[in-house]
Each structure stands twice: as structure tokens, then as C-alpha cells.
Amino acid sequence: MDALDRKILTELQMDGRLTVTELAARVQLSVSPCHRRLRDLERTGAIRGYRAVVDPAAVGLNFEALVFVTLRWEDRDTVSTFEQAVAAVPHVIQAQRLFGDPDYILRVATADLTAFQELYDRRLATLPGVQRLTSTLVMKHVVNDRPLPEQPATP
């Protein structure tokens, strides 16, 4: 991947609805080579897809919490069963496995505190393998949906 590919990725992260003509103009490339590079980025998986970024508040999801999960055991079966179960909870909009303690962090969006409490009690606390859940409420997003940087960080 060269600097031009990175520019294409940056532009598409800012506006995924650009036409190939608009994209080519922004990265200062003619349309055919730009289209070829775009297809290559899609084919290799550098671009995993296109989607709309929806404002949670606009669809009634005004409450967000981060839930830290510690598992009882970390064997392959427990981890796999937990991950399948958490993936089936629609209000978990992001889940990441971590090194150290806790084992996972879940980003959860609900309508309000009451809805979060119900989700917590009925679904999250009953996830398989869970030893402990700790939650914190999101007050405000300072950086959200930022495009990836054009250049990898240098040490």
C-alpha cells in the first residue's frame, strides 16, 4: 500500500458516498487508475465495506455505557461461548477482548438508564462464563468515528 492508496482510504472514510470521479479528483488521479486502485483495496480487504454512520440519539438510543467483563475461566470453550452469546445481544454495539483484567469491554447503547438496567440484569449478567461486570456511563464522546491515520505511527 502506497501513499496514494492511503489518500484514497482517507477520503472514503470521510465520505463513503463519493463517486469514483469525485474521489479521483480529490486524490489527483485520473478516473481509470483510481477505479482500479479502489477495486484492489476492496479485493484485498483493506476496504471491508460501506455503511451509513447513524446518530444513536436520532434513533432513540440516548444512553451509552461501557461494561467491563471478567470471565470465571479463560479456556477456549468459555471464551467461544461467551463471544457467541455477546454477539447475539443487539444493544452491544462494540465488543473487544482485552489482555489483562478485565477480559472484555462492551460498548452498550440503550434508550435510557432504565433500559440499560433491564438489559444488564436480563442479558449481560446472564452471559455464560461471567464472573464480574463493572459499568461506567459515557458522559460525552470526545473523539468518535475518526478515520484511521494516513501513515502508521513511527516509534
Structural notes for this entry:
The protein has 155 residues and is of the alpha+beta class. It is 36% helix and 19% strand. It contains 5 helices and 4 strands. It has helices at residues 3-14, 20-26, 31-43, 76-87, 113-124; strands at 63-71, 92-97, 104-110, 130-137. Strands 2-3-1-4 form a 4-stranded antiparallel beta sheet. A hairpin with a 6-residue loop joins strand 2 and strand 3 (104-110). Helix 2 crosses helix 3. The longest helix has 13 residues, at 31-43. The protein is elongated and about 55 Å long. The mean pLDDT is 94.
Question: Mind sketching the topology for me?
Answer:
Layout: H1 3-14, H2 20-26, H3 31-43, E1 63-71, H4 76-87, E2 92-97, E3 104-110, H5 113-124, E4 130-137
Antiparallel strand pairs: 1-3, 1-4, 2-3
